[in-house]
Hints:
The complex is a heterodimer of chains A (321) and B (331). Chain A is an alpha/beta fold and 321 residues long.
Amino acid sequence: MLSTHFLSGATNAKPPLFPATTAFSPLIDPRPKPYPITALLQWNRKPQLSGETPRVVVVTSGKGGVGKTTTTANMGLSLARLGFSVVAIDADVGLRNLDLLLGLENRVNYTVVEVLNGDCRLDQALVRDKRWSNFELLCISKPRSKLPLGFGGKALIWLVDALKSRSEGSPDFILIDCPAGIDAGFITAITPANEAVLITTPDITSLRDADRVTGLLECDGIRDIKMIVNRVRTDMIKGEDMMSVLDVQEMLGLPLLGVIPEDTEVIRSTNRGYPLVLNKPPTLAGLAFEQAAWRLVEQDSMQAVVVEEEPKRGFFSFFGG
Amino acid sequence: MAASVWVFHPRLLSIPPSCISSSSSSNHRIHIRTRIRIICGISNSGISKGTQQLKQQFMNSISKFRHQLVTSPPILPLMNGSKLPIWVCVAVVVLVAAFRVVLSITRRKERPGSVADLVRRGQLRSDRRGISRPLKYEDPFNNPLVKVGKTNSTVEMCGKVYRLAPVTLTQEQQTIHQKRRSRAYQWKRPTIFLKEGDSVPPDVDPDTVRWIPANHPFATTATDLDEDLAQNNVHQKHGVPFRIQAEHEALQRKLEALQNEQKLNKLVIDPTSAKEFERPFNSNARLNDHVEKSSSNNQHQASDSHSPKLDSSPNHFQIASSSPPEEDPSL
Lengths: 321, 331
């Protein structure tokens, strides 16, 4: 479930390539497309970073278990692979997991709480990934320590300011992995963010939470919100047992940053502490994360999504081949 | 209803070449053709008048067919008696079968669960098998696993072809959704966190208060940190972290005070042994207790007697602190 990437380039402000249809049956659209998809591939170039650096992006969802941490890990390492310097902040105070997904759990000695206390400096708390040295992890607290909420949000703003004024230069991206829910952790995580990536799955519980969280983000002044639809199964969409991506988009009204297919490799990569995007050869979900990261860099959104697997047709299909 | 089975006997096609010669008479041909027997098997279950009629029709059709065969011009004699067409047919059938086998073998490799597929998906180690290729692409849209169809309406990813559909979300629809959400969710980001039971300060908007349960597992409203100090700590780029330095200085001051009180001018802190004075972790108060206790012990020892060993030893502090309490007459 990926899309081609359009040279039309960028931004939501541009007029859409395709006219809106009111009566839209997105599960499997049987109608002939009125306009051919004029997608063009981008050959042999790196993505162009748009927007002011550091881009502070919060990855949030509302509902738990939809893939916020997985997305943060994979998109972070994809961005690092594309040559951008990335700091991923695990803002999940009580239930941090980003270090596990990245396989860096044994290297987290200091957290933001120790930095605030003056037990260590910020650069000592940043854990540099050995696979991609322009990727750094920062955990906000240890699982058993308590974070003083009085300046949780302020602390993240200070962190962003401190990262901006680093001697080795400001990072290009600061990805904040938001905890589930809309509790104090959510408020802390969204405080320094300028843009948000909303993760949702194509089910109604996740959609309701996503809509509410989007409303809260918009109330807080974060207008640049894009969504990633995770755990999509084309076979279930074809059988009309799952909402299609275009259904989800119609309900939430958000531009699409990516569509991630359900893939058993996600569980394996989680257990191995080795993000999908580093797999050789890449998996379907890993490719989708990479493409989402590319769009994030260029502040682009998807213009076409795949709706179903096309039935195989060949000369020998007549003979049962 | 009677089920009929038509059986064609191919062995009867094995015609001797002498019979198919161009000079053979029409009687011979009739003889040959009539040897093509078509057996009509009728089940015994439902023999009735209807079946009798049906049988009659079949017999008529067979006689018609026989008549056609007799009247139609002979084909086989035109082949000049060679078996070439038969062999061509056999060769084509063999070729098609072979091609299908080859095709199925190649497709079997693409099937999920096969070794090649497991290697491709990273479930098996491929480095020993010699069929892996390094990840050479940098563009996720331009790599061997993503191929867009010529009409741009399909995309092939990881060997599967997907149909594409355009995204139809417009800016107007986005704006409508934003307005809907702004009506549905009125929210202000909380600026103050209070424990249950605390009173709201007078100058604070009650909407921006977030109430935290007293037994919250990982959030606390109590903070013993100064805000400015914490900000400075975050922005500190070089040198010893604030708290480490503060504790070190406090310890230094204690020792200096101790030296002044005891007039132990020879006492110096050896940097190698100074590690022993380092705070274990977040035990400032405990260290202070240690220092106080040790200083009192020292004072007591100093009042008792001056030991030359104590004077010379850089670890005097620790020795003093570890002195047995029985020496203290007050205990």
